[in-house]
Specification:
Elements: E1 7-14, H1 20-37, E2 38-55, E3 58-70, H2 73-85, E4 89-96, H3 114-117, H4 139-144
Antiparallel strand pairs: 1-3, 1-4, 2-3
């Protein structure tokens, strides 16, 4: 009995300042390579998201998740080599998923609900208002205050 081909996650972080046609070509070439030597299960476009730390002086990246079955290790090495030398790819990561791992979450923009679109409501009349914060002393008040006297040791 042969085991099913392992499932892999490929996350690609593309330079958002690159030409949109170039970014589309990178994704299309990656999909074509996967479909030629494996089976593409899923492609999620997560859109542009901020980075935790700058990469090559970029503060955001366009994210793509591709899940696929790889029939042979040559596919993985070909993807690794191609994505390493391709301009416009900030980072990528190929991860072999363990059996039973839950599906990747839908990271696309969540549809807004009516409650989110409604303007914020005024507090109800029965609710007591929060006390106003105490005013902090002004610079003049602090300047006129007497200096504290420090106790001398006995």
């Amino acid at each position: 009995m042969t085991l099913p081909a392992p499932t892999y996650d490929l996350v690609i972080m593309l330079d958002p300042q690159a030409d949109p046609a170039e970014r589309a070509r990178i994704v299309a070439d990656t999909r074509a390579a996967i479909e030629a030597q494996g089976e593409l299960l899923r492609h999620d476009e997560w859109g542009e998201r901020p980075l935790t730390y700058p990469i090559e002086k970029r503060t955001s990246a366009e994210y793509h998740l591709l899940q696929f079955h790889a029939g042979a290790a040559e596919l993985l090495s070909a993807l690794d080599r191609t994505l390493r030398i391709t301009d416009g790819v900030l980072r990528f990561r190929i991860i072999k998923l363990a059996p039973g791992v839950p599906e990747a979450p839908n990271m696309g923009a969540a549809p807004r609900t009516e409650a989110q679109d409604a303007p914020p409501s005024a507090p109800a009349a029965s609710e007591p208002e929060a006390p106003a914060p105490a005013e902090s002393p002004s610079v003049e008040d602090v300047a006129e205050a007497p200096e504290p006297v420090l106790a001398e040791p006995a």
